[in-house]
Amino acid sequence: MAKRPALAEASVTITVPFHDVDMMTYAWHGHYVKYFEIARCELLNKIDYNYLQMHDSGYMWPVIDMRIQYVRPAKFGMDVIVKASLVEYENRLRIDFLITDAETGLKLTKAYTCQVAVDMATQEMCFVSPAILAQKLGLEQ
């Protein structure tokens, strides 16, 4: 399957802290989700539609699916680059993630998350993303 072009991207550099590693000095697998969230927040800030702005627009965007593939481990003290790429927006927000070793460029982990809009007033899931998202992406005609 062809790689989807990104509508928006953002990257952050994280130094794997001691409190995130196991006794083997590798980042515990559950902490990768936190790294994705940090990059996702950077991406949402970049498109000017962060979680507070989502709330103010009347929508929440819960994660409904997440897939992670661990390729190589991140270790204590390692600088990693976490890249978030928005690749779908029409019916859901799909963000692809890539974690690489900042020093070598080696791929460590790849993942994606899917989020859907939920109207906060009705608690109903939206089957089409609200117009505000297309506006923020500069895609509205």
Walk me through what this model shows:
The structure is a single chain. It is built from three helices and seven strands; from the N terminus they run E-H-H-E-E-E-E-E-E-H. Strands 1-4-5-6-3 form a five-stranded antiparallel sheet. Strands 2-7 form a two-stranded antiparallel ribbon. A hairpin with a 4-residue loop joins strand 4 and strand 5. The radius of gyration is 16 Å and the shape is elongated.
Q: Please trace the helix and strand order, writing H or E for each element.
A: EHHEEEEEEH
Number of helices: 3
Give the neighbour order of strands across the main sheet. Answer: 1-4-5-6-3
Number of strands: 7
Low-confidence stretches: none
Assembly state of the chains shown = single chain
Q: Fraction of residues in helices?
A: 10-25%
User: Biggest sheet, in brief?
Assistant: 5 strands, antiparallel
Mean pLDDT: 95
- The fraction of residues in strands falls at 25-35%
The structure class reads alpha+beta
What separation lies between the terminal Cα atoms? 29 Å
Cα-atom radius of gyration: 16 Å
Estimate the global geometry from the Cα principal axes.
elongated
